[in-house]
Amino acid sequence: MPEMAASLVGAVPSVYGGIVNVAAVLMLLIEFLMLRAALLRAQLRLYALQSLIVSGLAAYVGATHHAPELYVLAVLSIALKVVIVPWVIRRELRTAETEIAGSGALGVASEVLIAIVVAAFGFFATGALGLSGRLLPTAALSSAVALMLVAFVIMTVRSDVVSQAVGFFTLENSVSLASLVVASGLPLILEVAFLFDLLVAVVVFGVLMRVHHGRMSTLSTEPLRRLRG
Question: Which long-range contacts (CB under 8 A, 24 or more apart) does 117-124 make?
């Protein structure tokens, strides 16, 4: 009986694990809302909210693990992913005067169903690896992998540049979530390098949107299919 009670006590998640798991699940749910969003500006608002969650999580992990460099990461993440990225994309949208997200050959319901299947595969496949640790919230790591796969789905099934860009940006959020869960003690220079890669991607996608709209008068990538051999 004492052994059973001890095992039950050990099975109870800590406050840290509970908060991290809830944040990861919220980010995954927001990703599904992005897939259902019909307006491009709604996708940007959801991306900003998701980025705010991962930034707040970085600050919380920094406070819990006594890692003050994560505070710097949280501030930089808010400045770049919550403010700058949505502002740049909205600026391009005002130029393009486009509001509706382009869907591919599949309907929204089919896209969501595919995303659910892919997310479930990533979630349970990661759980089957048996990764565990006192400071490793397994559900959060599984959610990060599921989030990563759903981001790939968004980039694949959507046929407009903005949705594909948002999918790529949320892919970076999933990597940030996984790094916070698995290796919260990464040097600050590596964490900032991830944000620098995102900044480069924002510039590239901004130029791509402007050039593509200037030549095709649309943000849809459907005309690019003619370039396939």
Answer: 118/146, 118/149, 118/150, 118/152, 118/153, 119/28, 119/32, 119/146, 119/147, 119/149, 119/150, 120/146, 121/149, 122/146, 122/148, 122/149
Residue 92 · residue 210 · CB < 8 Å: yes
Of the candidates 95, 79, 78, the one whose C-alpha atom is nearest the C-alpha of residue 40 is 95
Give tens-digit pLDDT for 20-52.
Answer: 889 999 999 999 998 888 788 888 999 999 999
Q: Tell me: pLDDT of 135 over 60.
A: no
CA–CA–CA angle 16, 18, 22 (5° rounding): 120
User: Which residues are paired to 220 by β-bridges?
Assistant: 160
pLDDT given at position 116: 93
SS (H, E, C) 145-171: HHHHHHHHHHHHHECEHHHHHHHHHHH
CA nearest to 119, candidates 148, 89, 86: 148
Q: What angle (nearest 5°) sits at the alpha carbon of residue 160, between those of residues 156 and 163? A: 70
- Rounded distance, CA 98 to CA 221, Å? 14
At residue 11, does pLDDT exceed 70? no
pTM: 0.82
Q: Virtual CA dihedral for 169, 48, 212, 175, nearest 10 degrees?
A: 0
- Distance between CA 138 and CA 131 in Å, rounded? 7
Q: How far apart are CA 69 and CA 59, in angstroms?
A: 9
Q: Which two tokens stand for residue 134?
A: 């006192």
